[in-house]
Amino acid sequence: MKAEENNVAYIDGANLHKGIGTLNWEFDYGRFRVWLKEKYNVQLAYLFLGLIPKYKDLYTKLQEQGYTLVFKEVVFDGNGKAKGNCDADIVVHAMQNAYENKFNRAVLVTSDGDYTPLVKFLKEKNKIGFILSPYETEKCSILLKRTGVKISYISDQENILKKEI
Q: Which GO MF terms are attached to this record (predicted)?
């Protein structure tokens, strides 16, 4: 990606959180934001999350690290498990921004094959840069792989994204 490009990241927060939870090292969200800017020229990083009030301090920290948080209302199932699927929100947001020409290239952070139609749309419009998969290669959706868009794996960036203790 070119240094002068205005690129945007669309981050599936739940997918990122679950994916990095499988790593054998602690992920640093602050370093990730800096890395997105330096490596992919990401000027704006949308992080889509379910809104759960008890995590307000985390949300503040993420904003201070440079993320633009986009919240989804959370509902709870019969077992008390939070449900706040952001997939449709990400698709609508990215497509709207693409139509309004608000960015040069998108970086999509997910391993979820549900985003395949979005990836194909952005590819047709020459608006997709990369997919960053929070999961290792074998757990990244085959549907995303079949799009032909370059996929990088967060697990390969341990030396850059590992939290220093």
A: RNA nuclease activity
